[in-house]
Amino acid sequence: MMTHLSAPAHEGAADDGDDRRGHSHGLVDPSIKRSHEGLRVVVVALAILGITAAVQFFVYFATDSVALLADLIHNGGDALTAVPLGIAFALRSVRAERWAGLAVVLAILASAVTAGVFAVERIIDPLAPEHLLALGLSGAVGVIGNAMAARVRTRGGKRLNSPALIADGHHARSDAVVSAGVVLSAIAVALGAPIADPIIGLLITALILQITWESWSTVRGKDHDH
């Protein structure tokens, strides 16, 4: 009789995690332990990207680089995606986590559009970046920060069976490549090609759009099925 009474609770959990293809862990079992672990992953990634964005923020005002601005906007938006993900884990809700994944994708898209607008404006009204050593170092900070955040999110997402965290992890991993564009911009300007800065800003925009699509595919479950 005890088994019969407890069945609906398990059935409800199964319904809530029906997109997990029959897994018996992760989102199928919305436990307090999982919630705490998810929050820990989100907070650690937020701290890493928050520091990265703060460094780039101060360097941007010294360099006035569009490539750096594009990376800064994207890293700042990426850090803020911790908010909906953190709320979803705190609520221990599969549905909230799905919505958080969508919020991640929208944040990436918004950063791409914003970065693209600034890059086009700078092509129309050119202004060569300054303090190129600081510019290159800030790009290197972006590479390291995103690589660290990607590792934390991807490993946590796989451990917790969370498509939203996995999408954010893939996103941050690609962002390390995006940040490398800032280093390339500093080198190109130093070699006498200031127009390279807004052009690289546009290339960063294109990469962010690709990341948007890949993250959307992951959130929808295409990558998670493999």
CATH topology category name: Alpha-lytic protease prodomain-like
β-strand number:
0
Structural class by sheet pairing and helices = mainly alpha
Tell me the overall shape: elongated
What percent strand?
A: under 5%
Largest sheet: none
Q: Provide the succession of SSEs.
A: HHHHHHHH
- What is the radius of gyration? 20 Å
Number of helices: 8
Helix content: over 70%
Distance between the termini: 39 Å
**Highest CATH level, the class:** Mainly Alpha
Mean pLDDT: 75
SSE blueprint and pairings:
Elements: H1 2-16, H2 32-63, H3 66-80, H4 82-91, H5 94-124, H6 132-160, H7 163-190, H8 196-220
Describe the structure.
The protein has 226 residues and is mainly alpha-helical. It has one domain (29-220): Alpha-lytic protease prodomain-like. Helix content is 82%, strand content 0%. The protein has eight helices and no strands. It has helices at residues 2-16, 32-63, 66-80, 82-91, 94-124, 132-160, 163-190, 196-220. Helix 2 runs antiparallel to helix 3 (66-80). The longest helix is centred in the first third of the chain and has 32 residues, at 32-63. It is elongated and about 55 Å long.
